[in-house]
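User: Can you write out an input/output pair for a complex, sequences first and structure second?

Assistant: Here is one pair. Inputs:
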Amino acid sequence: MSVDMEVTLGGLSLRNPVVLASGTCGYGTEYCDLLDVTRLGGIVTKGLTLRKREGNAPPRIAETPCGIINSVGLENVGLDLFIEQKLEAVRGLNTKVFINVAGSTVDDYVRVVSRLSREDGIDAFELNVSCPNVEDGLMFGADPGLTYTLVSEVRKETALPLFVKLSPNTSDILQVGVSAVEAGADGLSLINTLHGMVIDVETRKPVLGNETGGLSGPALRPVAVYYVRLISRSVRVPVIGMGGIMSWRDALEFILAGAWAVQVGTGLFSDPGLPLAIVEGLADYCERHGVERIADLVGEIDVS
Amino acid sequence: MCEDIYRVRITSRKMSGEAAPGQFLMLKSSPGFDPLLRRPLSFHETYDDSFELLYKVVGRGTLILSGRKCGEHVDSIGPLGKGFRPAGGRPLLVAGGIGIAPLLFLARRLREEGKEPVLVYGARQVSFLVERERFEGLDVTVRLATEDGSTGFAGTCVELLESEMSKSDYGVVYGCGPSAMLAAVSELCERYGVESCQVSIEERMACGVGACLGCSVASSAGGYLSVCKDGPVFKTGEIVF
């Protein structure tokens, strides 16, 4: 039996449900010697901002129990240099490319998305709403109203599938997700990293140069699976699940919880072969269980 | 080799053949995902079919690695990064503590090129000055410094380096050790007008291939450079300590 691994979300068809997460795979080219991205569902590029960002002072990463904490701070070349230096290579990846976009004003996002929508070789956008809004310092993704405004303005600029990546650092992630969908999002990615910090008790200083950072890895997986289940039942658009996926079993948890696709991020650092192993493991599971299409497993958690 | 310092030999014809002095690999200290991240370790010496790593136990990853048994399989990615670059004139190597690790491979290459390197090597006490006899075996002139005065010059390798530099002219200084030491080495090279000063930097890494931007060092041109991809060896003018 050959298993149909294709999934379609927001009008976008992926050859399988495994996608590389933003910030962990650069522009898809850095891992070229270690990983064949053409065999994956897609990649999400490093968060892109209108203007170049230098990022935060080092140290930027620390290992934590079953995870890592990072404060890279959205270091990236900015829109113009991205188009000039990176876009050609991204176009040649022969996999679906999601451009992750970040900003500190609505206009920042609008300008990046409208400019890139005129370029070939981009398949979708993913909005990172975990950045503080300069106008009031509040994170876009912490507030349903701010999220609605942002997504509805960006929606006007592109016909490409638009995903919104939700942050768990809010009191009501569900309402933020619902607002994003009402404003026109084609899908939701969740979850982004959890706020955290680590202190070196000998020096009494924070380990990260930026003091605080975002926690990723298996430590937060149950939280992510929970939110995928909660939100996928409440919205009519597809959800992409992520958070500490280190095996095909982990990926399948997200799919059973309601995710149409999954993103692998932190796990890539440990094993660049992991994304392909997940694709193979999922196909093998489907065969063993007589499942013809991986899409048939989406949301198929048995709570009877 | 001494209380916290270990040397391991790993068989890989491909990796040892491709590695250049100053390059590193990303090694999984144990199978599975705990610890989660690989550990960056520089090539200590290479042979036809294998290579050596020299490391100090500083945390959980290196502690687990030190307990691995002979004959076990290890998962590693490499060689990675940019190593030491050739330069004219007499080479001076300076190591602080476990910073000796990448310099043996470099010293051998320099000897094979007919150069006559001098090594300035400092540590807290004599028992930490591991591998010094291997440099002597390569006919490298070795100058030792110990902070407790248990052997050689009583003081730091930077103080010994200054006295060495004041006596002879060197075309290039290659350094590895703690950040404060490398900053002092860089400053000395500038003061003595050494043509090329190259240092190997250590930073926490996640991907090792320039994708995650986790291992940054401040660039003298503004912004940051990635230690894994732009380094780990930098010319001292490229970075801000």
